[in-house]
Write a structure and sequence with these properties.
Elements: H1 4-10, E1 42-45, E2 51-53, H2 57-64, E3 68-76, E4 114-122, E5 127-129, H3 131-134, H4 139-154, H5 158-162, E6 173-174, E7 206-209, E8 215-217, H6 230-238, E9 242-245, E10 256-258, E11 263-266, H7 270-275, H8 291-297, H9 304-308, H10 333-342, H11 346-353, H12 356-361, H13 371-383, H14 413-420, H15 434-448, E12 461-469, E13 475-482, E14 485-487, H16 497-508, E15 519-521, H17 523-531, E16 534-541, E17 546-556, E18 562-567, E19 570-572, E20 578-580, E21 583-585, E22 590-592, H18 649-657, H19 662-671, H20 677-687, H21 716-723, H22 729-738, H23 743-751, H24 754-758, E23 790-800, E24 808-815, E25 818-823, E26 826-829, E27 838-845
Helix pairs in contact: 10-15, 11-13, 13-14, 18-19, 19-20, 21-22, 22-23
Domain USP: 324-846
Domain UBP-type: 173-281
Family: Belongs to the peptidase C19 family.
Amino acid sequence: MADVGEVLMSVLSTIRVPKPGDRVHKDECALSFSSPESEGGLFVCMNSFLGFGSQYVDRHHARSGQRAYLHITRTCKAKKEDDNNSGSGHPPKKKPTRLAIGIEGGFDVDQQQYEEDVKVVILPDRQEVTSEDLGAMADVVRERVSLSMAGIMAADSVSHTLQIQQWDGEVRQESRHAADLKQLDNGVKIPPSGWRCEVCDLQENLWMNLTDGKVLCGRRYFDGSGGNNHALLHFQETGYPLAVKLGTITPDGADVYSYDEDDMVLDSKLPEHLTHFGIDMMTMEKTERTMTELEIAVNQRVGEWEVIQESGTTLRPLFGPGLTGMKNLGNSCYLNSVMQVLFTVPDFQSKYVSNIDKIIDEAPSDPTQDFKTQVAKLGYGLLSGEYSKPAPDAGDENGASEPRGDQIGIAPQMFKALVGRGHPEFSTNRQQDAQEFLLHFINMVERNCRSGSNPSEAFRFLVEERIVCQQSQKAKYTQRVDYIVQLPVPMDQATNTEELQEAERRREEGDSSALTVRAQIPFAACMAALSEPEILTDFWSSAVQAKTTATKTTRFASFPDHLVIQIKKFTFGLDWVPKKLDVSIDVPDTLDLSTLRATGQQPGEELLPEVAPPPLMTPDVEVKGILGSHGNEEDDSLYSPLLSPVLDDSTVSQLCEMGFPLEACRKAVYYTGNTGIDAAMNWIMGHMDDPDFSAPLVLPGCSSGPGTTPTESLSEEHLATIVSMGFSRDQATKALRATSNVLDRAVDWIFSHLDDLESMDVSEGGRSAAESEGGRDPPPGPRVRDGPGKYELFAFISHMGTSTMCGHYVCHIKKDQQWVIFNDQKVCASEKPPKDLGYLYFYRRVAE
């Protein structure tokens, strides 16, 4: 074997020192979830700075030719007993003052301590070089290798840079009133307990004004609990700015609120201010929840968290293939729940996990940025069972205790960074809507599966919408592709109305002992609301050339292999504030949707003429096209106004003030014909889930509108995406030209023009009529699977909290006739799966 010094000299030109901007992957393997703590450690390429586990480093060496790797291994140190905290269950050494973890003033994190071993390994013979060995080598070798080793170890790893930060509650500032606060010598002395509001006798949520010693109740919360606003009213009458929350006073401090600064503040002279009214901080004990604790608790509905997480029972931990937990990266439970369910679907298993060796062999030079590789890595990590092992108990060196359910699991950091890159929401550390993430991921799968099998086809189905003009009784049929059935919740169909009314009455009376009553909604009522005709009051009928009333009926034109049902729990109140409906729905284990199968045009039924409504135009607009025509071969527009339409600016402004995107507001006003705020708001509520909801308003025939995009400027990526859905290139081109090269709009357009597309000559990407043995091509459209509409429930995702922007997600999956709860890193056998409280339900087709 060659001398190691000579070998290092021969590869010295390939050893780099990390520069600012270099991505150093020293915490996680690019192709697996191996880390420095894993068996065999992690090998970091000293040229590309990619990390590889012991099972993949030889493969990378063979493909890249790189030989020098920094081998990092970490082993746990034995924990030393803390003198100040000698037993488990004792309080932390210091009281946290901030709603943050692991930072100054926040909660202490019991970090595991590691012993780290670092050395250079030369492949293929795995010759090892330690820092001590470098001392005996040539200066040029010692200097370059030492700098590279030090640079890699000192660099922030990519996972650290992208790591989801813990939520850091706002740091409270010193009040500007604290130093010179005026306190009245009125002889008021406050007892250490037994307080009541001086106005309404309320005995909780009490605040003492630090100027005059008045004890009054706090603000009323959004749900009707809290106080009666008497402390706030007192400030408005007197201008006395600071108040302390009674019951939060301890030797460490208290909650102080400044009404003038409208924020929680610090009062450095609080002991002195309290002594003025006879309160000794050093003898006070906490009896009320602090505002920080209330802030944490506000999302935890009574009973909902415990029921969904099955907290009341001791659950049996499960380990093995398909039973792998996922670490919560900080508000990533929505991603964890969705991916656990998706990799229960055979299509995703066969696409990514069964072919993982082939995918890794074909991976690009930087697999951390390759969608297929990272999805396969995640799927294999979840299904292989390699990481489904009990997490070591920090206090149990011998491993003698019973497993608690927590697993080593996998941390999907690379995956989350990749699928969230460039997205305004999924790239952040905020909580997200699981349904929105599911659609986002399916969209990414669609774009990355232009050839070969496409697992998202398992969820894809066609929806037929039938609109009947009530004046002419003529009908219009359109089809669109969808992946999720959104099930409405008819609150007026609750079966326990009397109980709900009684609970509301007791809550309004301030009865804190009243139990939370959840509305019981029959699943059949939800299905009836989905299938019943919708009344369209402002429908423009091409038959009568005017606005009239119409009915819209929605049915399934195809039934997918796997059906996703979303319970529309999230809605808007009368004040347009988002809220969550607290409901229980008796979702069935089996489902038969056969009666909702679309039937198409009925015998003798007349169709509405294909003409468009008149555009909104200024008086001097010149109309190029002729209403009622289909344009010409060069221009698909029905009309070509030269000027922009007149929009009611006041209505647009009102909608914007409610928080809706400007372009959505403009479209709402345009498509409702300037008929007022109510009609525009109804349009917005009905189109919020549209993929182009916030896209710019595109007018037919405008110079920047549809029909004017030259073919040579069309996105090849968009063309390939539409072709992969089963359409020809000519059809994809026509759709993109008609929608200004906007992919989502083009897909919608193509499904609403299927009849027109049938008559198109098929060239590249399809067969001509002469080439078809039957003399007729199959109708254009997406590749959708169809079959019986009978299903069985196999998974559901539940949400806890008051809105999709906060709270927590868990999922339950049926595996081998046993329900299993996946709660991030905890994977346990489910005892009482809360099927009535789910948010997303997943069904699979039952074979006839």
